[in-house]
Design brief:
alpha/beta; Rossmann fold; 5 strands
């Protein structure tokens, strides 16, 4: 399959925040996905700490994360002095213009290292666009639709991985990726994914009205 992704020209390191780590783990195929990526994936040391909080809700993401680290698929890093300054700017201020520690540290490290921030939260994406327009951003879906991931996993395995992330985590899908994702997982599975828009779950062709005529 051909897919649209913003991860074609990505700068290393690729820095994952907590939500992205959870989404990748939920695929059930994280080692294969990370093996296929042509860039290095890292996470700032605030991320494993946030994953540990999930234990009280019975989640094992922290254990799966450490397995990826131990296997060499993921590296835990720390902010330097420059990153710490960016971090402070992102966590101090009014709530509408600040982020939680994991997102802030992810963005700060990507800025410090001239890398790419892997974030899925809309607020963090919005703030980056207004405050750091030169920072490269991508989402978990961008990773899953990377051409090398598609090639090495194959459509069937990848479809299962994407479906798992939609059902077992909170992976969102932006409008520009929606058609590719529904085509990949199929309309029957799309209908069971509450994270997808209603039109996609109702087996409608994206961009059409109920009669099948193109809107516009």
């Amino acid at each position: 399959m051909e897919a649209r992704t913003s991860l074609i020209k990505v700068s290393s390191p690729l820095v994952a925040d907590t939500s992205a780590a959870i989404n990748l783990i939920a695929t059930g195929s994280a080692p294969d996905i990370l093996r296929a990526l042509p860039v290095k994936l890292v996470a700032v040391d605030t991320v494993p700490g946030e994953l540990e909080l999930g234990r009280v809700r019975g989640r094992a993401d922290a254990d799966r994360f450490q397995e990826l680290v131990a296997a060499g698929f993921l590296e835990v890093v720390q902010l330097g002095d420059t990153g710490a300054q960016y971090f402070e700017r992102l966590v101090v201020g009014v709530a509408a213009e600040t982020l939680d520690d994991g997102e802030a540290a992810t963005i700060a490290y990507a800025l410090e290292q001239n890398g790419t921030a892997l974030i899925d939260e809309r607020k963090a994406t919005r703030l980056c666009g207004s405050r750091f327009p030169g920072l490269r951003l991508c989402s978990t879906v961008d990773i899953l639709l990377h051409l090398e991931v598609i090639r090495q996993l194959g459509a069937e395995t990848l479809a299962g991985a994407v479906f798992n992330a939609l059902i077992h985590a909170r992976m969102g899908v932006t409008p520009e990726h929606l058609e590719d994702i529904v085509r990949l997982i199929g309309t029957e599975r799309a209908a069971t994914c509450p994270r997808l828009p209603r039109a996609a779950r109702m087996h409608r062709t994206i961009g059409t009205d109920e009669t099948g005529s193109t809107r516009g």
